[in-house]
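Reviewer 2 asked us to include a model.

Predict the structure of this chain.
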Amino acid sequence: MKMPIPRPKKFCSSGNYVPAIFTATDFDPRFEPAVRVFRRYAFKAFGEVNPEGGLLLNVEDSLGNGYRISVGNEIVLSAANNTGMNYAFATLLQLVEEREGVLCLPCCEIEDCPDNGWRGLMLDLARCYHEAEYLFAVADLCWLYKINRYQLHLTDDQGIRFPFSQFPDAVSEEHYSEKELKELVRYCRDRGIVIVPEIETPGHARAFNKTYPQFFGTAPKTSDAETTAQAGVISGIMRADDVTFDVLNKMFKEVADLFSDSPWIHIGGDEADIKKWDECPVSVAYREAHGLKNIHELYGHYVARLSQMILDLGRTPVVWEGFAEECNHMIPKETLVIAWESYYQLAPQLLKGGFDIINVAWMPLYIVPHRKMWDPEVILDWEKNVWTHWWEKSVASVTPVEVPKDSPILGGQMCVWGDAMSPKNAFAPRHDMIREEFGDLRLRLPALAEKVWSSYNNPDKDAFKADFAHHDRLLSKIL
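Predicted model (structure tokens):
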């Protein structure tokens, strides 16, 4: 018998089997999306089976986002909500096996729930455009392994993929339509997955510099303010100016409206070449007017102002670790910080500053196709309270950064970056690169799913590898 990935907290099997059932016909309306999703996957995996029904679905409010499965004389799935029922169905589908030509389920009792609320995946859609169909396939992958946060990196130097209606010139030729994104939101909602949209600010902004220099452009200090406002200098960083913030507020309002059920909006906030602000008269004037001593304080102010902007929209801001520790007091403590580089500041400093954090340690949770990634066995050794890195400028490259296990770490996330997939750096035709990227991801995401579902576990790697091979064949069927 193959064990589900991630492994359930409590699993007891008698060793007996019963014929599998894939249809439920009488259930609480809250489970309707999960039932519809499961029917679709079961049909794709196994064909038309048990159309008359037989699965019993119970409401059990005490389960939170967990679930319960009982397979015996009856097959009973219990959950409190649609999310929990999706988890139950994903486990049930993984348990199906063929015995003497009959699709069967093991007689078992399962009780399970996630340890971490943030079990995430990020896709870089800005450096290399991915067709919308691919985003749906990745959502299928997330469903199977109970990944519940799906971050879309929608803007960067290479392109802007969000369809800004008020600023159409910013939008790249290859972008997602409002209809496509709304359909993806619905598709993910049905599966218990929440999309986290990201608009990168103030760095990684060459596309914004180029298309709207009057709002985002910077210029050398030899230019006067009026010239700066119109100059098309592609500096890679947005200028600091009230007009710029007004435009960003309108842009984030569009993002919030389209991703209407996402509690989080990611504002970027890392790797900004803030030295360019000292060369921009408009940004210098803004800094001085707000009593900020230097560009580092201006950076903290920038993140703080954007974070408050998101809070005013009724959402929670998410930001990359990128601001200095001395700016921690400036930034709203509701801001969720992704700790990734262990360079700008470390996890202990962020926690001391009062922030909740997510562990996205570069090593081993980054995938950069054709350049750098780590094997599943390494990911299975990762723990959410430890950060490591390969880059010699990161503190974590010398000694792992570690915090107490009971620290407010909401979970972990895998990030797939397209540094080698942009038109300038492409290592193959685009569709071949995306196919390779998906292969890299489907091999590694299950290992992350295992570690963020149950914190500080120590899975048997050989058993995990065998179980993964079974579930990966299932994935190929349901895609």
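The chain has two domains: 10-113, 118-458. The CA atoms of residues 304 and 331 lie 4 Å apart. We have added this to the supplementary material.
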